[in-house]
Write a structure and sequence with these properties.
It is a single chain. The chain is built from 14 helices and 12 strands. It is α/β, with parallel strands linked by helices. The protein has 2 domains: about 240 residues, Aspartate Aminotransferase, domain 2, CATH 3.40.640; about 140 residues, Aspartate Aminotransferase, domain 1 (Alpha-Beta Complex), CATH 3.90.1150.10. The strands form 2 sheets. A 7-stranded mixed sheet has the order 1-7-6-5-4-2-3, sandwiched between helices. It has a 5-stranded mixed sheet with strand order 8-9-12-11-10. The radius of gyration is 21 Å and the shape is globular.
């Protein structure tokens, strides 16, 4: 039966427990599993290699992304590192230059020590991706929408370029979630998530995931994961599985709130610019409409008055908590210059379009009128700080 997203989020991989009939997947809080004989087990041997709670989460995520296989990781960055473990010394990766600061730190300060090279390009222009490809290029890495500037990358165009060169395309799908975008259906080889964000959805569990459709690639990733051990514990897997059940209804409300917030901020004298892919004049709007089923819950703005205005705005907000993460039921405000993108050198941030006036809003599930009222009083504080 071809079940809809909301149904799969609740039921995929989550059949009643065969031993007890428990409706909800149990937390298998165990390190090891008793063998029937030295060469026989019941499908699980050791929880680093596999755990029934984690397996339920992986089955669900694979179903939601339209892939055959998923791997759950201990964090989003563990998942990022997991993709790199299929590479070898001398390999080259083409990377979208607008990306999460943690990924940038891994790509520029850790992996080059292992002789893996990275070229950073404006991936919103597919011709720049094509121009950067080399015989040694084994992977193309993109985000869409990007963090924090919400630029839109044409996933299908990048997939075509990667496949023409025999390279893998990895798409960080954290901002869109499987509810709004499915990179594998657009030609990508790997869909990556920080499940800490929207998939978990409640700011109470850290995790990551990779979803693939190719069995050989899955086996390579799984072998590396088991060898290096970047797996979530059963309780973390259970919390994430609980969160994903409501992903669809939450994403609809996140988007409604973001639309209201973006419209309210637009045109305000304290605001220099507002980025949200749902605006018809957003540079990536047409591509977003083609490859997404909605525009997400993140709004990024630049304030008039630079750093003093941005700091005053962030610190005056009451309903928007000032914090590093996003995608929870509660609204969050982030200051990329010193928080999520602190790993970038100042000149690189400015070149990308991140300034000391840039603020990222993760619009939660609170009443939109209350959120807009909170933004109004914070804008007054920003105005007074200039």
């Amino acid at each position: 039966m071809n079940r809809k997203f909301e149904t799969r989020a609740i039921h995929a991989g989550q059949e009643p427990d065969t031993a007890t009939g428990a409706t909800i997947t149990p937390v298998y809080q165990t390190v090891t599993f008793t063998h029937d004989a030295v060469d026989q087990n019941k499908g699980f041997a050791y929880s680093r290699t596999g755990n029934p709670t984690r397996a339920a989460l992986e089955t669900c995520l694979a179903s939601l992304e339209g892939g055959r296989f998923a791997l759950a990781y201990a964090s989003g960055m563990a998942a990022v590192a997991g993709t790199m473990q299929v590479l070898s010394a001398g390999d080259h990766v083409v990377v979208a230059d607008d990306l999460y600061g943690g990924s940038y730190r891994l790509f520029t300060r850790v992996l080059p020590r292992y002789a893996i090279r990275f070229s950073f390009v404006d991936a919103t222009r597919p011709e720049e991706v094509a121009k950067a490809m080399e015989p040694a290029t084994k992977m193309v890495w993109i985000e869409s929408p990007t963090n924090p500037l919400l630029r839109i990358v044409d996933v299908a165009a990048c997939a075509q370029i990667a496949r023409q060169h025999g390279a893998l395309l990895v798409v960080d799908n954290t901002f869109a979630t499987p509810y709004l975008q499915n990179p594998l259906a657009l030609g990508a080889h790997v869909a990556l998530h920080s499940t800490t964000k929207y998939i978990g959805g409640h700011s109470d569990v850290v995790g990551g995931a990779l979803v693939v459709d190719d069995e050989e690639l899955h086996q390579r990733l799984k072998f590396a994961q088991n060898a290096t051990g970047g797996v979530p514990g059963p309780w973390d897997a259970w919390l994430t599985l609980r969160g994903v059940k409501t992903l669809a209804v939450r994403m609809r409300q996140h988007e409604r709130g973001a639309s209201r917030v973006a419209e309210r901020l637009r045109g305000r004298p304290e605001v220099a610019s507002v980025a949200w892919p749902g605006f018809a004049d957003h540079p990536g709007h047409d591509v977003a409409r083609r490859q997404m089923r909605g525009f997400g819950g993140i709004v990024t703005l630049d304030l008039v008055g630079g750093a003093p205005a941005a700091r005053a705005f962030c610190e005056a907000l009451e309903l928007f908590s000032l914090g590093e993460s996003l995608g929870g039921v509660e609204s969050l405000v982030g200051y990329p210059w010193l928080m999520s993108h602190a790993a970038f050198p100042p000149e690189e941030k400015r070149r990308k379009g991140i300034s000391e006036a840039t603020v990222r809003l993760s619009v939660g599930l609170e009443d939109a009128d209350d959120l807009c009222a909170d933004l109004e009083q914070a804008l007054a504080a920003a105005r007074a700080a200039v």
